[in-house]
Amino acid sequence: MNRKISLFMAAAIAATLLPLSLAANAGNQPPPGGPGGPGGPGGGFGRRGGGRGISLADMPVSSYAEELKLSADQKTKITVIRNAYKAQQKDMFKPGAPPDQGMFEKMMAVRTETTKSIEALLTEEQKAKLPAVSSVLGQLQRAGIPLEVLGKLKITAAQKAQIDQLQKDAMTEMQGLAPEDRRTKGREIMMGVREKVQAVLTAEQKSIIETYQKAHPMPQFGRPGGGRGGPGGPGGPGGPPGA
Q1: Please, which of 39, 60, 64, 208 could form a disulfide with 240 given CB 3.0 to 4.6 Å?
Q2: Per-residue H/E/C for the chain
Q3: Contact present, 194 and 29 (Cβ < 8 Å)
Q4: pLDDT tens per residue across span 105-138
């Protein structure tokens, strides 16, 4: 397997296992080891209105229960499905070991099946609303906000609009880069966005995120002959994300 594929799989699996970490303490952390690759494909709902959504399997129930008006029975059943999904991820993931093709394909298959199982519990009206919800959650996750604590954060509409604009500005800047600079400078741009998000969040919101991140650190992948690779970008329509 060549190096490019290895980096792609490492980034995709990292994005699948846990949400991207907010750079709230970026100044206290070591610089990223290697460039991240593109996120992996995901099943279920994806792009709408220009925003990249995330897989339904990777969306915590609490992050969309209110918007979709999930019933108590739906929330219970979806929680059981996601708990099984996370258990399967944990069984397949070997900390410190680089992923191989078989592991990557198995994880993608589990994600797709989990997404289908959750979709089957939703009404047609809920399914119609889901792409827009997925798009918003994708924006927040790419900004480094863990979806697991989204309900506690109580992000306002004004904050969401500011975060959305920060990402649009970053995408415009990245599109102006030369192809050979997109991997290194593009990563710097996205890390810059996460730092700017701090100015949008309140002290209480940042404290909630920091507490969550300390309890749920990002997984690390071993790579012979070098430092650890940085996390990859989010997946395409329907992918990735958080655990």
Answers
A1: 39
A2: CCHHHHHHHHHHHHHHHCCCCCHHHHHHCCCCCECCCCCCCCCCCCCECCECCCCHHHCCHHHHHHHHCCCHHHHHHHHHHHHHHHHHHHHHCCCCCCCCHHHHHHHHHHHHHHHHHHHCCCCHHHHHHHHHHHHHHHHHHHCCCCHHHHHHHCCCHHHHHHHHHHHHHHHHHHHCCCHHHCCHHHHHHHHHHHHHHHHHCCHHHHHHHHHHHHHCCCCCCCCCCCCCECCCCCCCCCCCCCC
A3: no
A4: 888 999 999 999 999 999 999 999 999 999 889 8
pTM: 0.66
Of 95, 70, 94, nearest to 81 (Cα)? 70
Residues in the chain: 243
